[in-house]
Amino acid sequence: MASLTIRLHPADNVVVAGMDILPETPVPGSDAVTRTTIPAGHKIAVQAIAPGEPVRKYNQIIGFASEAIAPGDHVHVHNVSMGDNFSRDYAFGADAVPTDFIPEAERATFQGIVRPDGQVATRNYIGILTSVNCSATAARMIADHFRGNALADYPNIDGVVALTHGYGCGMANQGEAIDSLRRTIAGYARHPNFGAVLLLGLGCEVNQVDSLVEAEGLTPGERLHTLSIQESGGTSTSVREGIKFIEKLLPKVNDVTRQTVPASHLVLGLQCGGSDGYSGITANPALGHAVDLLVRNGGTAILSETPEVYGAEHLLTRRAATREVGEKLVERIRWWEEYTTRTGGEMNNNPSPGNKKGGLTTILEKSLGAVAKAGTTNLVDVVRYAEPVTGKGLVFMDTPGYDPVSATGQVAGGANVICFTTGRGSVFGCKPSPSLKLATNTPLFQRMPDDMDIDCGTIATGDATIAEVGEQIFQLILETASGRKTKSEELGFGSDEFAPWQMGAVM
Known about the structure:
This protein is α/β, with parallel strands linked by helices. The chain folds into 3 domains: 1-87, Archaeosine Trna-guanine Transglycosylase, Chain: A, domain 4, CATH 2.30.130; 125-254, Ribose 5-phosphate Isomerase B, Chain: A, CATH 3.40.1400; 267-491. The chain has 15 helices and 21 strands. Strands 17-18-16-15-19-20-21 form a 7-stranded parallel sheet, sandwiched between helices. α1 (136-144) packs across α5 (235-254), α2 (176-190) crosses α11 (403-413) and α6 (283-296) crosses α14. It is globular. The relative contact order is 0.14.
């Protein structure tokens, strides 16, 4: 049975409800008695908290009392706010320690697809990428031709997928917005999980295909073909030409064999969506343990969603391999503070209605749980959205907190597997990289068995430890990289979730 409450640190003045708790229930380990019904995953005060005093969870400040809070009170949005000021000691590199790498001869392996350039794939797709929304329908027409039994004679091809978006025109032809879009598309064009790519444009858009290819140093050839609808003579002609290109390449793309390769070739994207009060207690720290195992085996993990590390970034700067790396993260935090102010928002707008219903009160609380996905190893680099990830170890990529946009940037940066924790039940996939879904609580896992790959709720019930579930996650990552399908792949997710970050004005 689940514990009635979960205390995360002796210095905390709140505990977390391990199940729905009725009024007048004594709170274990304290003199408090619940004064109202407390939903599972929500917080209960175990001490009196005066107005303006900090609310502490994980032995960190998650907000400030906006009114007097008595022992046994439900602690949530009605009596907690962000406050006007909270200090963080960045202490760059203070907690950085040498990584305890596993000897190379003993490192984990998986069955990967080695490309001619040495990159290693976990999947083998053919991609149709679009420069602009106007070429989206034609791209889907081409992909639709290869549905059903069209690939029956090519068992080593995972599919032909059209990744379309609503951007590419009505924007400036230079600057941050178009640079980010081009970086994203080019990252997918180079991704090892694509055996071949067709880049399809309209012809009059701002994001011209030729300019994109030149700016990003792409080289059209046998496995990268470019096509313009207007220059080709229209939609029907372009669709026929696109189909012809792909049909010609099917035998070559199919001609691959999986082979044993070290886990150092894995680049793992870390995501959390639909988070709840258990995220920072079960799935996120378990994923963090798996990340530590991956890094010790020479692999790479990408932590992202900058608005969702806000207020917890000091836990990362203290692990920065160098002061420069830590300062790059702080600079991104400052950019987001200015960006949200300029657009009429605030950082605490991030927690969604689902997050709050699941027990998360402020962005500070959400971020402290989200950072647990990153494990404990050093932060080795900070990169821009969709920038190629070249560092080995834990890397931070600046992205929005919106999951499809964030994961799109990670895949563009080279992520060949995604791990996605969720407490409310996010459904997600991101072709061409497989996405594993980690449930923070057992009721969710039982309620959505077709979507969830692992039940991390066993940590809350005491049936498993963080380390045991983390090992389970790591082993499933290796199996998935070797070809085992995830639940989201079985459901067909991944085409519509391609979502480049739309930055700047739409004109």
